[in-house]
Amino acid sequence: MVDDVSLEELRMLRRPLRLWLARHGVTRWSVEKRYCGWSDPPLVSEGEEQARWLAQRFKGQAIAKIYSSDTRRAVQTAEIISQGVPGSVTIEQALEWREMHFGTWEGLTYEEIMANTSEQPGFFRDPVGEAPPGGESFEQLVMRVRKGLRKIFMDVNVGAGGQWEEQAHYVLVSHGGPLRVLLCLLLASPVGRQWQFRLDPGSLSAIDLFPGQREGEPLAAILALLNEQR
């Protein structure tokens, strides 16, 4: 999706578009290390504190729009963030930014899953090639993230013939899986290496996107911040 460019070439590009990546605050299930996926537990008090820290982090920063997973824990985080942004800001919820669906494992811990099987499930040996029982494959998650990313690009008018919006800041509130995949796609890293990005609950990361100088040229992306926490 993006090509490698030299530092000198980056200096020639216009100001970047900043995409802030916020992982939602903690829930009871995340504290208990349960697979949550598409299930919908709310934030606990610690998660709300993390979201308030994120809101404080954006205090005084003009944000064009907030994108969010449509799960309750993400929307709660996005709503709290919006309170720290000057003026009114739209929160657009989308299924594309949900966590991977873990099927029959949702609500279970790793120990509970292993207690009910005679051998290690394939997903734990090969999470890219194997899906949780009754759940979503990694390929399906990647396809969702690509779709969500295209929607954002269309929204900010980055498509062919569009005009790049200078100094624009956007926020995406999502989950560990989709955000790690997104970083891989934008940084031209194999998606199978997504586990090399650590994104804790309530953390903030950021990526700067530069448009190509000529029509049809790919974006250049720089990781500007990773896993900043309260």
Automatic annotation (TrEMBL):
SUPFAM superfamilies: Phosphoglycerate mutase-like (SSF53254). Gene3D superfamilies: Phosphoglycerate mutase-like. SMART domains: PGAM. PANTHER family: BROAD-SPECIFICITY PHOSPHATASE YOR283W-RELATED (PTHR48100), HISTIDINE PHOSPHATASE FAMILY PROTEIN-RELATED (PTHR48100:SF1). This is Alpha-ribazole phosphatase.
